[in-house]
Design brief:
Pfam families: Beta_elim_lyase (PF01212). By secondary structure, the protein is an alpha/beta fold. Helices cover 40% and strands 16% of the residues. α7 links the parallel β4 and β5. α1 crosses α10, α2 packs parallel to α10 and α8 crosses α11.
């Protein structure tokens, strides 16, 4: 019963097959290969637009930091939630890649930015006041670090507030597929149609071996050459990019990434229902995706611990359990028996 993280899950067999399928012959380096070209066609289908440029990374931290560095100068700030991955889990990578950019942390329930706090932060931007650091970017996360999902309408609303103030809008989509399944929105509806300028679309947590896509929409495309230069300088220009592109193509084929996210989300609902069955275990946040945040009853915590289940303690005495595309029915059945 391993509920540690979806990054602990294996790659989907179709991804491994895709890697083997491109592992022959010679191909141009650094994204000039035919496989990466085919990925652009696939992204055009998935995103319902061809007005974008993209770059591939093997790490979500690199994808976020590289993307943000193109839009936040060293003397600027990035508005984000105080529990955002870029703030809590990336070891100052955004600050490092921007050359000193500041993260301006905002509160909000369920790791979703509070609108009043956002409005106050935007209203407080003073570009010409030398003593403060003006914001240049708003960064949202979907799913959030508390496993909750911003609906497309909320993303669009927050994006509009930011754009009215001249900010670029970034979306950290490490669990983008899980958010899409939860909200019922299309990739377009919750990204460029909602005002997102730059999306870091993660596939690793969904079932890839290691594949993150930085996508620049519309006018943000003017930063593409800078993005490539920054990637090269930071050591994130994969010479054999076709192996990353092949993973993404396999995930997008037949909407596999969405079906895998659907399975992960469903397993999370099943796990949360079983945990809360005793009437004493309480959910800390709604289960919108594949993460469960709970305050476990003493008996449930003891049962899970003694059974050797893998999960993590979390903020405020709660615990986090994460399901994945390959969490089997046998695990759900065993959990049900254990908690009974």
């Amino acid at each position: 019963m391993n509920f540690s993280s979806d990054t602990s899950a294996p790659a989907h067999p179709a991804v491994l097959e895709a890697l083997a399928g491109v592992n022959n012959g010679m191909q141009p380096s650094y994204g000039a290969d035919e496989v990466t070209t085919r990925l652009r066609d696939e992204l055009t289908r998935v995103l319902e637009t061809d007005d974008f440029d993209f770059w591939l990374c093997a790490s979500g931290t690199a994808a976020n930091a590289l993307a943000l560095s193109c839009f936040c100068p060293p003397m600027g700030a990035i508005l984000c939630h105080e529990e955002a991955h870029i703030a809590r889990d990336e070891r100052s990578a955004p600050e490092f890649f921007t050359g000193g950019g500041k993260l301006q942390l905002l509160p909000g329930e369920g790791a979703q930015i509070d609108e009043t706090a956002l409005r106050e932060a935007i209203a407080g931007i003073k570009p010409d006041f030398v003593h403060e650091t003006p914001a240049h970017v708003l960064s949202l996360t979907n799913l959030t670090e508390s496993g909750t999902a911003y609906p497309a309408a909320q993303v669009k609303h927050f994006s509009a507030l930011a754009k009215d103030a001249g900010l670029t809008v970034h979306l950290d989509g490490a669990r983008f597929a899980n958010a899409l399944v939860s909200t019922g929105a299309s990739p377009a509806e919750i990204s460029w149609k909602a005002g997102i300028d730059v999306l870091t679309l993660g596939l690793t947590k969904t079932g890839a071996m290691g594949c993150e896509i930085i996508i620049l929409f519309g006018s943000a495309r003017q930063k593409f050459n800078e993005l490539k230069a920054r990637a090269k300088r930071a050591g994130h220009m994969p010479p054999k990019m076709r192996y990353l592109a092949a993973q993404a193509i396999a995930m997008f084929a037949d909407d596999r990434w969405l079906s895998l996210a659907t399975t992960a989300n469903q397993r999370a609902r099943e796990v949360s229902n079983l945990l809360c069955r005793d009437g004493e275990t309480e959910l800390v946040h709604p289960v919108h995706g594949n993460e469960i945040f709970v305050r476990l009853s003493d008996i449930n915590l003891r049962a899970l611990t003694e059974a050797g289940a893998t999960f993590y303690p979390w903020i405020g005495g709660s615990h986090r359990l994460v399901t994945s595309w390959c969490t089997p029915q046998e695990t759900i059945d065993r959990l049900s028996e254990l908690l009974a």
